[in-house]
Design brief:
Layout (H helix, E strand, L loop, with lengths): L4 E7 L2 E14 L4 E5 L5 E2 L6 H4 L1 H5 L2 H4 L4 H6 L8 H13 L17 H9 L12 H13 L13 H14 L8 E3 L5 E3 L1 E2 H13 L5 H16 L10 H9 L4 E5 L3 E6 L4 E7 L4 H15 L4 H11 L2 E3 L5 E7 L1 H4 L9
Antiparallel strand pairs: 1-2, 1-12, 2-3, 2-10, 4-7, 5-6, 8-9, 9-10, 11-12
Helix pairs in contact: 5-7, 8-9, 11-13, 12-13
């Protein structure tokens, strides 16, 4: 199946480029709400599933045993910009488990946020694993390992108890097999498993509603969603899409980007889970698809609508600040929904 064009990039009066992709929206029973393109093709969700990967830390009681705050729990779900507060919070998580940055096995890179990158360079600093966009998730994995009385060394490998535990939770929520045949290696070195978009959407519907989850897991999912809604800066950072959208909508929407054009979300009040993938992996295209879906699915206030519409049709400017075009939803995406005029 050839996926439809979901996104157009304009320059002047012409469409300069288009991006194909697939979208799956389901409820917690697995009933399809919307399917665009090949939603059964397996994709690597990468960082989009970090909140689900954080469930074992919270549902086990280990997060409470180490006294993790909601700010710290939000960071365990993050693909952050490496800003000072992000790095300091990752260090704080490790310290509560009696560990430090030397235990992190995610690798080091310069902050992905431009301002944070410049600030670190201006002081003569060097990037550490704390600046890695996945340092919050990895700090959470180390806490989980310590709480399970397991040596954290090698926690990124598929054979480690941490990854076995996380894999079981992902299998439970998505209903998709996580076997060696589906396994790849993520940028931060942990295993990532290829999952159909429809199964990813189901996992996020369950994460957002608690339907089909045990009591402890339902409570943990709610706590994670609330932590992120209260501290959306921790999940991404300054001027980042995930942070902007969740600052606007709070607990009405949990959204999380993944690499290579993957985005996942849950809309708890509707009971929906969303998973999408842009074929060519363009991040700005996947973000616009997600904003467009939320714009059409949720009843928005005037303030919410203004902010979400700006994310659904971002303006492109050149280096002189001149508006040259837009990234916007294509016809295949727009005709999936009736036009809405909610107040």
């Amino acid at each position: 199946m050839v996926n439809p064009f979901l996104i157009e990039v304009t320059r002047g009066s012409l469409i300069e480029s288009r991006h194909r992709g697939g979208v799956a929206i389901v409820d917690a029973d697995g009933t399809p709400v919307l399917s665009l393109g090949d939603v059964e093709r397996r994709v690597y969700p990468r960082s989009a599933v970090k909140a689900i990967q954080a469930l074992p830390l919270v549902e086990s009681g280990i997060a409470d045993r180490f006294g993790l705050s909601d700010v710290e729990i939000a960071l365990t779900c993050a693909s952050h910009s490496g800003e000072e507060k992000h790095a300091a919070t990752a260090a704080s998580i490790l310290a509560k488990a009696g560990r430090d940055a030397s235990c992190l096995e995610c690798g080091a890179h310069w902050p992905s946020g431009e301002a944070a990158n410049r600030a670190l360079a201006a002081t003569g600093g060097q990037p550490s694993a704390l600046h890695n966009n996945c340092s919050g998730k990895h700090s959470g994995f180390i806490c989980l390992s310590c709480g399970l009385d397991e040596d954290p060394k090698g926690y990124v490998t598929a054979q480690h108890l941490v990854q076995k535990t996380v894999r079981r939770v992902l299998e439970d929520l998505t209903g998709a097999p996580h076997t060696e045949a589906e396994r790849g290696t993520d940028g931060c070195s942990i295993p990532t498993y290829a999952i159909p978009l429809s199964a990813l959407a189901l996992g996020f519907a369950r994460f957002g509603t608690g339907d089909g989850l045990s009591g402890e897991r339902r409570i943990a999912a709610g706590r994670i969603r609330r932590a992120v809604a209260q501290h959306p800066f921790m999940v991404a950072g300054t001027d980042r899409f995930d942070t902007k959208l969740m600052e606007c909508l709070g607990e009405r929407a949990f959204v999380k980007s993944g690499a290579e054009g993957v985005y996942c979300a849950t809309l708890p009040e509707l009971g929906y889970g969303i998973a999408l993938k842009i074929d060519d992996g363009t991040p700005r295209a996947s973000a616009v698809v997600m904003a467009t879906l939320i714009q059409h699915l949720l009843s928005l206030s005037d303030v919410e609508r203004t902010q979400v519409e700006a994310l659904a049709r971002p303006v492109l400017k050149n280096w002189n600040g001149i508006e040259v075009g837009h990234v916007q939803p294509g016809a295949a995406l727009l005709r999936s929904f009736p036009k809405r005029y909610d107040s």
